[in-house]
Design brief:
The strands form three sheets. Strands 7-8-9-3-10-11-13-12 form an eight-stranded mixed β-sheet, sandwiched between helices. Strands 2-1-4 form a three-stranded antiparallel β-sheet, with helices on one face. It has two domains: about 1-85 and about 140-378, P-loop containing nucleotide triphosphate hydrolases (Rossmann fold, 3-Layer(aba) Sandwich), CATH 3.40.50.300; about 90-130, no CATH class. It is built from ten helices and 13 strands. The protein is α/β, with parallel strands linked by helices and about 375 residues long. Helix 5 (about 135-150) runs parallel beside helix 6. The longest helix is centred in the middle third of the chain and has 18 residues, at about 165-185. The structure holds adenosine-5'-triphosphate, iron/sulfur cluster (SF4) and magnesium ion. The site of adenosine-5'-triphosphate has 11 residues, from helix 1.
Length: about 375
Amino acid sequence: MDGLRIGFADGEVVRGVSFDLRAGEVLALVGESGAGKSLTARALLGMLPRRAEVAGRVLLRGRPVTPADLGRRLAWIPQDAMSALSPVHRVEDQLAFAVRAVARVGRGDALAVARRALAGVGLAPDAAAAFPHALSGGMRQRAVIAMALVNNPDLVVADEPTTALDPERQERVLALLRERCAVAGAALLLVSHDLAAVRRHADRVAVTYAGRIVELGPAELVLGRPVAPYTRGLLASLPAAGLSADALPGDGLSADGLPTAGRGEGLPGDGPPGDELPGDRTSEGGTSGGGLPGDRTSEGGTSGGGLPWDGTSGGGLPRRPRLPVLAGAPPAPGAAGAGCAFAPRCPHAGDVCRRTEPAPRAVEGRSVACHDPFGEAA
Ligand SMILES: Nc1ncnc2c1ncn2[C@@H]1O[C@H](COP(=O)(O)OP(=O)(O)OP(=O)(O)O)[C@@H](O)[C@H]1O
Ligand code: SF4
Ligand SMILES: [Mg+2]
């Protein structure tokens, strides 16, 4: 992706996003609500709203993507598996349709391919032959993973693919998704609010803020030793998840200053992927309450004291775990001025920050868009 810009009537909301993705790699997009993650993900697939004004290029193996690539070279895994599955067809038939949409094969052969793909994600023949509503949320999301990969795409884009599941199943499904993509040699772009899961599953992480990438690099560096003030603030507000590591006392961004736990210890669902849990067929709407400490809801992208995530919403999908809310709020769409969009919230902001948008540059093994990442000038 090269120089992606997306605007609506209110102004530009994605403001020059560039990254590359290698075969078999997992790149996670993280950042607060409204940062432009979903639009960026959709732009890869050519699935943007019609009224969006778009600039920039998306090249797949050196050539521009076209609508015909969707379902062949590009695959999409949505948040809600039901939106990817037809309720009136058996799961295996839906995969067979997908196979026949891109290859000249007979129905029997397509069904055989479909069944192999479903077996590959751990769905037994009776589950493969079921209608989607007869399956649990976890099993449906496995079926969607099988569907996404059945035509051996080059790139899989997954926008919060496990949010509808409880934390333990989230972990299993994410591990499965990563494993299936690796087996297929497909790159995976993963949009997630779950930084602990990102740390476990992503090779690289792109931290987005107000429509730009502020830090991009290997997951262990970006989440273990963050450099950009925004990333540092984000991680410093997650102390008990063990992600803040070299947290930044006195950085002015952490909400509460709780003690920091050991990095990577005691995270829920750390185990390897496995079969569905007993009772998974009735798992719709998880209630585990296992969100990251410090997670808050912030629907609509406003900051302030949201409710702790309780895993249920009463309205179908469980509430998704949200990134913790930092002091202040991101700029409204189109309101980012000439300087760094994070300046009003940044303890290191200096005059240059308010005047000039920082360009990305190499800092300690990753790319960082910040004039003064170590706060030396402030
Ligand atoms: N169809 C649209 N029309 C106008 N504005 C839009 C549209 N879709 C998204 N936006 C705006 O673009 C910005 C980025 O939206 P996007 O959905 O990409 O955010 P996000 O990072 O995925 O957030 P979240 O974490 O809440 O999913 C938001 O300010 C949003 O309001
Ligand atoms: S450019 Fe300036 S305001 Fe922006 S994050 Fe860096 S130090 Fe803070
Ligand atoms: Mg989104």
